[in-house]
Structures are given as C-alpha cells and as structure tokens.
Amino acid sequence: MILRLLMWFVLVTSLLIVALVSYLSLADLNWLKPRIESMVAARSDFQLSLQGELALDILPDPALLVEDVQLSRTNTEAGDLSVNLGHLSARLHLASVLSGPLLVEELRVHDLDIDITAGTADPVEETAAGSPDDTPSSRIPVVVQFAELSNIRLHAVPREGEPLAAGIDTLTITRDDGGYLVL
C-alpha cells in the first residue's frame, strides 16, 4: 500500500514538473512586462520600458531573451541616465544554476546606447573599504564562456568640459582550450 502511494506521489510530482517546464518553455511571457516595469519603478528611481520580445527557455539549458528595452533615471542632483538596449540573450549551463558558480555559455548584447548626464551635486568619493555588502562572500561568481557585443555606444556629458563618446562596433570574447580569453 505504501509503495503504491509512493508511486502515485512520484508520478504526480513528475507530471507537475514536466507541465511547469513545458509552460515556461512554450508560454508567451510578455504578459509579465507591465508587472516587471512596475516592480522596477517601485523599488528604484528608474523607469523601465519593455517594448520588445521577452522569452525564457528552461531546457536543455536555461536561456533568456530580451529585446527593445529602455531604462532611464531623471535626477538633476545625481544626474540623468538613459539606457536603450536592442537585444540581450544569455544561455546558462543548467547545473551551474543549481550549484554555482554561474556558467554563462553564451552572452549576446547588440545595439546598446548609454547616455549619462552629470548632475548638479558634487560627486561622492568612495572609500577604499567599499560598501558592507560588497564582500567576496556576498557575490556570486559568474563565468562567461562566449560573449558577443556589437553596436555599443556610450555618450557622457560632464558638468564641465566637452561631451565624451565611446563605442564598440564588434567585440567577440571566447575561451581557448587552455581556458584563456581570446578577443
């Protein structure tokens, strides 16, 4: 009798897990965008706008796709920040999500524009000690095996002086057989 109950429990649990993984892999998650945007606004002074695709895959490896994202903060004292992202995709190694360190097998960032305008307040000098939560034990190590960055643009307007601009047309980072980074 106990064996039969245990078999039913395992069967029902397995079916629920398969249903959840199937839903997360096949469902349209775009209905979550307004909720994500409001959570960001409630927990920070940033405004987030998710205009494009939002997709999540679970199997065979977890993957995230986000397109056409705008993140902005308007604060005359601290300065203005505007980030426009055309495409971000990341594929993770499944076992690393559970056990760490987090292994990012593939990271692609395309069409990223960052605009920074200095605020009216004097910059705060950081101490050498850093913040109390910035200890090595509070950070999760992340290992990126392959990264592709393209069309990255940075535009900064300081309080004094000329505006600054920098950009990356295309940058590909891989690891060779010895574990060294190759640009």
Written overview of the protein:
The protein has 183 residues and is of the alpha+beta class. Helices cover 23% and strands 43% of the residues. The protein has helices at 2-26, 33-43, 94-99, and strands at 47-50, 54-57, 63-73, 79-92, 102-118, 142-144, 146-157, 164-175, 181-182. A hairpin with a 6-residue loop joins strand 7 (146-157) and strand 8. The chain is extended and about 80 Å long. The protein starts with a helix and ends with a strand.
List keywords for this structure.
9 strands; extended; 43% strand; 23% helix; 183 residues
Question: Number of DSSP helices?
Answer: 3
The run of helices and strands is: HHEEEEHEEEEE
Distance between the termini: 62 Å
Question: What is the C-alpha radius of gyration, as a whole number of Å?
Answer: 22 Å
Structural class: alpha+beta
Could you list the spans in which at least 5 consecutive residues all have pLDDT below 50?
A: 126-130
Question: Helical residue percent?
Answer: 10-25%
For the largest beta-sheet, the strand count, sense and barrel status come to: 9 strands, mixed
The strand count comes to 9
Q: Would you tell me the overall average pLDDT?
A: 83
Described by the principal axes of the CA atoms, the overall outline is extended
What percentage of amino acids are in beta strands?
35-45%
